[in-house]
Design a protein that fits this description.
The complex is a heterodimer of chains A (108) and B (164). Helices cover 69% and strands 11% of the residues of chain A. Chain A is mainly alpha-helical. Chain A has 2 domains: 5-68, Orthogonal Bundle (Arc Repressor Mutant, subunit A), CATH 1.10.10.10; 73-108. The longest helix of chain A has 38 residues, at 70-107. Chain B has 164 residues and is α+β, with helices and mostly antiparallel strands. Chain B has one domain (3-163): 2-Layer Sandwich (Alpha-D-Glucose-1,6-Bisphosphate, Chain A, domain 4). Chain B has 4 helices and 8 strands; from the N terminus they run E-E-H-H-E-E-E-E-E-E-H-H. Chain B has helices at residues 24-32, 34-40, 130-147, 149-163, and strands spanning 3-8, 13-20, 47-53, 60-66, 72-83, 87-95, 101-115, 118-127. In chain B, helix 1 crosses helix 2 and helix 3 packs across helix 4. The radius of gyration of chain B is 17 Å and the shape is globular. Classes of the chains: A mainly alpha (108), B alpha+beta (164).
């Protein structure tokens, strides 16, 4: 199944993981220590984050370190920017409509 | 006049504030009368087509966003509170063509005030889930890119820039 960035941030634990690995690359064990949860649960979240292309893995010795793809996070803001533009378009249309109505009233 | 747009991911709320250089009663009508709403609600080239609108507490607006090729996307707004020319609230949900809502929806709160001939409208949209916000943005994204292909080009340029 195709995942996207909004699924990545939809879960509070995943948001916390994102916040942690934004600072430094971490192993699943180190992450599990931060949460009241099992390593398996953390691994599941990391798998989803990987599928969302939001984290990358790096093997160092026997450990796998996870780090954040910061650039990918920017996509969220890009999407929200589109939503902002819609509102701008919509409300400018309202402005135009109000001006048209006023003009008609005056012309009467 | 200027518009403010703030997304608060913590409180899952989108806040939009806009001022109009027109008297409050006119702005209020534009938000609450279907024939006026349909003239501005949909970003061009989309069209807004209101099928039912009963502006009273417990009443509803059932309308479609119609794309240039005639595809309809229905939505249902149920009015939960109305203080004439001051505030109204509704619960908004996408729907099928038979008015069956697709839950969850979002809670909208619109406040109107006038000072020195300028009317300020503050809109706050609360979503239970970020997924819902995503869907709203996705819908909006489609409309927005249809409306302004230049924006899409900019977006793609930025995205490809950030990937390299």
């Amino acid at each position: 199944m195709r995942r996207d960035i909004f699924q990545a941030i939809a879960d509070p634990t995943r948001r916390a993981i994102i916040a942690l690995i934004a600072l430094q690359a971490m192993t699943p064990n180190a992450l599990a220590e931060h949460f009241n949860t099992s390593r398996q649960a953390v691994s599941k979240h990391l798998r989803i984050l990987t599928e969302c292309e939001l984290v990358t893995q790096e093997q160092k010795g026997r450990e796998i370190y996870y780090s954040l793809e910061i650039e990918k996070m920017k996509e969220i803001d890009e999407w929200l920017e589109q939503y902002r533009k819609i509102w701008e378009t919509r409300l400018n249309q309202l402005d135009d409509l109000l001006a048209t109505i006023k003009k008609k009233e005056k012309d009467k | 006049m200027k518009m403010d747009f703030v997304v608060d991911k913590q409180t899952k709320t989108v806040s939009i504030t806009k001022e109009f250089a027109f008297e409050l009663s006119l702005v209020w009508d534009a938000y609450t009368k279907p024939d006026l709403l349909d003239q501005w609600w949909a970003p061009k080239p989309f069209a807004s087509r209101t099928k039912v609108m009963d502006f009273r507490v417990g009443g509803r607006r059932f309308y479609a966003m119609v794309s240039p090729d005639g595809q309809e996307r229905w939505a249902l707004q149920k009015y939960t509170s109305i203080s004439p020319k001051t505030n109204f609230k509704f619960f908004n949900a996408f729907a099928d063509e038979d008015e069956n809502p697709e839950l969850p929806g979002s809670d909208w709160d619109l406040t109107f005030s006038e000072q020195d001939g300028t009317t300020k409208v503050s809109i706050s949209i609360y979503n239970d889930s970020l997924e819902r916000l995503e869907k709203m943005v996705e819908m909006g994204f489609k409309e927005g890119t249809m409306a302004q292909l230049d924006n899409l080009e900019d977006l793609l340029a930025k995205l490809s820039e950030s990937r390299t």
